[in-house]
Amino acid sequence: MALSSKLKQLFSTSPKKNNWPGLIEAYKPWLPVTKKTPIITLHEGATPLIEVKSISKRIGKGVQVYVKYDGLNPTGSFKDRGMTMAISKAKEDGCEAVICASTGNTSASAAAYASKGGMRAFVIIPDGYVAQGKLAQALVYGAEVLAIKGNFDKALDIVQELSEKYPITLVNSVNPFRLQGQKTAAFEIIENLGCAPDWLCIPMGNAGNISAYWMGFQEYFIAKKSRKLPRMMGFQAIGSAPLVKGHTVANPETIATAIRIGNPVNKEKAMIAKSSSNGKFSSVTDSEIINAYKILGREEGIFCEPASAASIAGLLQLKEEVPKDSKIVCVLTGNGLKDPDCAISNNDSVFHSGVEANITEITKTMGL
Ligand code: AN7
Question: In what order do the strands lie in the sheet with 169-170?
Fold first, then answer.
């Protein structure tokens, strides 16, 4: 092959990856945007779907397990999918400030997109229960951060009240544009797999994401872009499992602070996703979460945050129920770098500190 045609081939491959415009441009006909909508984007979406053989092997029965690695979005979580829509629509409305309550990721994403859109962002977080990486992001992106003496549920009550009284747009998942943006992850999965999976395993906090995925899978099904619908399998941490228990949890607790939520605002939508997909909700312990978290890191080179590992933990828990030869997608909602404290205290690796800086000492320590 002549060099010029080789070069041509090189530059014409993977247009999606190199020129990905962000999910609003990519899925415009599926989204409530018009020519007048200013598109505020950080080129979110188009995250990889990765086969995780170490998990497939643990399930057996010819099952193929994939992860939708949404921690590779611009601010490191799936929230960016919803935020590009919520902030673009807020901008279209002439809004100058946004507000959210957050266990961390929403605040990071809201802060980034507000800054890109030239708006102020106020974020209210539970003091002491937001992972360091997320707090760092909100501060660097220029949000005004209020850490309250109360949990996420209390913070959400407060921001709902504030957004009714003041001209500040609420960008939590009660904002319908958030779910519209997030549904695009289901489209990407179908496009990558060639069909919908048999099961979609997903962590649940406020239950916005499971509701958004279900909307996306249904829309592609109705448009005949997929021939089946997945069972929606939602997982919560055992200490914060209102959707499994069927009632509000007053003092939710879990190592997975992202999903430390006792009163999910999208509970009705999530219950519909479960019943209409013949799905199932289940709770996983913190140690099941950490076990899954470690497997992904050590055996797959995938670093997710603890809340995300709940999807894999849940799948492993329901191993016996997995149909043979099925295709399963677990959603990894956030990047592991978000929560360095959890990583440093939960790994099985060898860490030698204070090693003398000479070859003899180092080779001795390495056992060479
Ligand atoms: C990594 O940032 O609620 O069930 O305020 O950060 O749609 O609430 C985060 C939630 C899963 C749960 N995984 O999603 C917030 C917040 C990660 C998360 C969830 C969250 P939803």
Answer: 144-148, 120-126, 97-101, 169-170
Task: Pick the atom of ligand 1 nearest to 71's CA.
Answer: 1
For ligand 1, atom 9: residue with the closest CA: 258
Per domain, the residue ranges of the chain are 3-74+178-345, 79-176
The Å distance, Cα 256 to ligand 1 centre, comes to: 10
3-74+178-345: which CATH topology?
Rossmann fold (3.40.50)
Is the confidence at residue 11, as pLDDT, over 90? Answer: no
Q: Whose CA is nearest to atom 12 of ligand 1?
A: 205
Residue 18: predicted pLDDT: 73
How far apart are the CA of 194 and the centre of ligand 1, in A? 27
HSE, side-chain direction, 13 A CA sphere, residue 336: 21
CATH assignment of 79-176, given 2.60.450.10, 2.60.120.260, 3.40.50.720, 3.40.50.1100?
3.40.50.1100
Closest Cα to atom 4 of ligand 1: 207
Asked if pLDDT for residue 16 goes beyond 60, the answer is: no
Residue 15 pLDDT exceeds 90: no
Q: How far is the CA of 208 from the centre of ligand 1 (A)?
A: 8
Among 157, 151, 328, residue whose Cα is nearest residue 252: 151
